[in-house]
Design brief:
Elements lengths: L26 H24 L3 H12 L3 E2 H8 L3 H13 L3 E5 L7 E5 L1 H21 L5 H15 L6
Antiparallel strand pairs: 1-3, 2-3
Helix pairs in contact: 1-5, 2-5, 3-4
């Protein structure tokens, strides 16, 4: 087994205990590792019980906060293609969580809105996630938790690199 230099030793993966070495200093790697934990947390808190995937929750939550926007705008916000967002909306519509409506200002455009069932589901899921994440991530102080949220929001906002 190859030994890492002393300045890179000591940090290991949370599971499997593999040496991270230089990976420890790469934001994308740490975000990906954190995603494993956050997806497991999501599934524990709401996903399994409400048969909801993280992307579905995100779509429902964005629609709740921004009713009557187009699929194109939603796709842009999530950095996905039009066919991808259409597929997700189709699935949510089949579950009677969202509905498409013709735009009152542009007859060619469709707007998206939550159904009462979708509104109830996303409200309950949001409450459970906000309350539950504080318990799941109890290894973080309140200040650390708030700082983590703020820093991740900053990282997520950096989508162009000119």
């Amino acid at each position: 087994m190859k030994k890492t230099s002393p300045d890179l030793a000591g940090e290991v993966t949370p599971e499997g205990e593999l040496e991270e070495a230089r990976l420890h200093h790469i934001v994308g790697y740490q975000v990906a590792q954190a995603a494993i934990s956050t997806i497991a947390s999501f599934n524990f808190l709401v996903g399994k019980e409400q048969k909801l995937r993280p992307v579905e929750f995100t779509i429902l939550a964005l629609i709740r906060e921004n009713p009557d926007h187009t699929l194109a705008r939603l796709a842009q916000a999530l950095a996905v293609t039009a066919p991808n967002i259409t597929t997700w909306i189709d699935r949510l519509e089949e579950r009677k969580l969202v509905k498409r409506m013709q735009s009152s200002t542009d007859r060619r455009a469709l707007q998206i809105r939550l159904t009462p069932l979708g509104a109830k589901l996303v409200a309950e899921a949001t409450t459970r996630l906000i309350e539950g994440e504080r318990k799941v991530y109890k290894n973080l102080s309140d200040t650390e938790f708030d700082t983590l949220i703020a820093l991740l929001h900053k990282v997520a906002g950096r989508r162009t690199f000119n």
